[in-house]
Amino acid sequence: MPESPVPVNLAERLARFSDLWAQKKVADLNDYEIKLAKLKGEFVWHSHPETDELFLVISGRLTIRLRAGDVVLDPGELFVVPRGVEHCPVAEEETAILLVEPVGTLNTGTAGGPMTRAAETLDGAADRVTPAPAG
Amino acid sequence: MPESPVPVNLAERLARFSDLWAQKKVADLNDYEIKLAKLKGEFVWHSHPETDELFLVISGRLTIRLRAGDVVLDPGELFVVPRGVEHCPVAEEETAILLVEPVGTLNTGTAGGPMTRAAETLDGAADRVTPAPAG
Predict the structure, then answer these.
(1) Going residue by residue through chain B (135 aa), what tens digit of pLDDT does each one get?
(2) C-alpha pair distances (Å), B33 with each of A26, A101, B11, B39, B122
(3) What is the DSSP string of B82-102?
(4) Residue A69 in 3-state DSSP?
(5) How far apart are alpha carbons B135 and B133 in whole angstroms?
(6) Beta-strand relationship, A62-66 and A87-102
(7) In b/e form, how buried is each residue of B110-121, taking b as 16+ CB within 10 angstroms?
(8) Which of B63, B80, B103 to mutate to test binding with chain A, by most A CBs within 10 Å of its CB?
(9) Closest alpha carbon within chain B to A5
(10) Strand bridging mode B77-81 / A8-9
(11) Residue A56's beta-bridge partner residues?
(12) Which of B1, B54, B86 to mutate to test the interface with A (most CBs of A within 10 A)?
């Protein structure tokens, strides 16, 4: 019998890592990934031609620079960067965010460069329940 | 020139409605919707054969009953109910949640019944920026 399913506690998962600009997967949703990241400083201008990208700020403050203007996100605020829109995340203080995007979306989009990192999995991220037999 | 893009403040959006078990769309992510809902009481057992469903608790406490056992979510905790898994959300106190699932996912899945409601859009939910011209 499988163990009882458990939720993903975001604060607990954030406490497990300290590296900046690394995306840590905490859950799967169909062919999407739910990821956490800690940011501080300025990232690189980039875009994702194939997908929108959701940012939700958990702690700190995130500025998403866009050619149309800056979007400033405090905790409890989210923003979806549409596909193809150039953006550059900037955080003056250390900032924790939740990301939702399709599996395989690179953090630097098509820009590449030394900050490019594939998403990593935190232990326990794959907690899923098994469908019970019908009836 | 478009207005500066603005983030979605979850608390501000939650303050705009009070009806229970209604899903209010606050953002689009490709062919997925980001929705808010307020829950109190017991929903109906149902499943979504075609999709996983993400629950993130913002305030209150949500119990997701599964045939494999209950999952109890406090604020800052998320859980993905896999496709095809029967579940029944229950909230003893009023609870606010964020949902992520494909456009058109019905709240009662294949169970139907009087609690079935399509997602509604809160004013301002469609704030999106227009891609800037290349170059």
Answers:
(1) 355 689 999 999 999 999 999 999 999 999 999 999 999 999 999 999 999 999 999 999 999 999 999 999 999 999 999 999 999 999 999 999 999 999 989 899 989 898 898 888 876 444 444 444 443
(2) 20, 12, 18, 18, 12
(3) PTT--EEEEEEEEEEEEEEEE
(4) strand
(5) 6
(6) antiparallel
(7) ebeeeeeeebee
(8) B80
(9) B71
(10) antiparallel
(11) A78, A98
(12) B54
Separation CA A40–CA A28 (nearest Å): 26
> Which residue type, as a one-letter code, is found at position B9?
N
Query: pLDDT tens digits, residue range A8-45?
Result: 999 999 999 999 999 999 999 999 999 999 999 999 99
Which token pair is B108? 């009662």
pTM equals: 0.88
**Contact by Cβ (8 Å): B58, B93:** no
Q: Tell me, what's the ipTM?
A: 0.88
* CA–CA dist B32, A130 (Å, integer): 24
Residue pair B23/B3 in contact by the 8 Å Cβ criterion: no
